[in-house]
Design brief:
There is one protein chain. The protein has 207 residues and is α/β, with parallel strands linked by helices. The protein has one domain: TIM Barrel. It contains 8 helices and 8 strands, in the order H-E-H-E-H-E-H-E-H-E-H-E-H-E-H-E. Strands 7-6-5-4-3-2-1-8 form an 8-stranded parallel β-sheet. The longest helix has 18 residues. It is globular, with a radius of gyration of 16 Å. Belongs to the pyridoxal phosphate-binding protein YggS/PROSC family.
Length: 207
């Protein structure tokens, strides 16, 4: 799929370029083509690319989308990301909140596929955990959810995962949730049909 079609498919939602495998020059080129939000899986890579591109005066909105290790919390906070997408529960939320001196927009990561290889809170605990984080972590501005579907070629299973995640998101709307981040390169079209308003695209963009 070419960029024009990707942009057409995502014109009504937010497209985050998952830039894990590309350099600053590539990010700059895609920024010029209209993609303004980029997500990194590793804090050090986010720091390096952010510092490089800050010199270009680009108004990039950086997202952190990877698993946050406790020894990397200070480094994350110093980057002041636009959105931390991968808060996977109250434990890490409290550790981050304790060190923040500003408000950080955050998504609760849900392990909707219930796979051991994936991070995130179990779906049946999501509402309870979301409200606990809101209550106990005043410097985290929880504004929605993030998830990854099952590692499968079964489109019905993927759609089922996204539908379940969207139901959780719908239940959280009354608690100020506005972002439903689901869908990656191999399944973003299904995610959009299931209600996603933010997708994270890597390989399909950066071929």
């Amino acid at each position: 799929m070419d960029l024009e079609n990707i942009l057409k498919l995502t014109q009504n939602i937010r497209l985050v370029g998952a830039s894990k495998y590309v350099d600053g020059v590539t990010i700059k080129n895609f920024y010029k083509l209209g993609i303004k939000e980029f997500g990194e899986n590793r804090i050090q890579a986010l720091k390096t690319k952010k510092e490089e591109l800050d010199k270009e005066n680009l108004n990039i909105k950086w997202h952190f989308i990877g698993n946050l290790q406790s020894n990397k919390i200070n480094l994350l906070i110093r980057q002041k990301p636009h959105l931390w997408q991968s808060c996977n529960g109250i434990k890490i939320a409290k550790l981050v909140d304790k060190k923040l001196d500003y408000t950080l927009d955050t998504l609760l990561e849900i392990n909707i596929a219930k796979e051991d290889s994936k991070q995130g809170i179990q779906p049946d605990k999501a509402l309870e955990e979301y409200l606990q984080i809101q209550e106990e972590c005043p410097r985290l501005n929880l504004c929605g959810i993030m998830c990854m579907a099952s590692h499968s070629d079964d489109k019905k299973q993927i759609a089922k995962d996204f539908e379940q995640a969207y139901k959780i998101y719908e239940n959280l709307k009354k608690y100020k949730a506005t972002i439903c981040s689901m869908g990656m390169s191999n399944d973003f079209e299904i995610a959009i049909k299931c209600g996603s308003n933010m997708v994270r695209l890597g390989s399909i963009l950066f071929k």
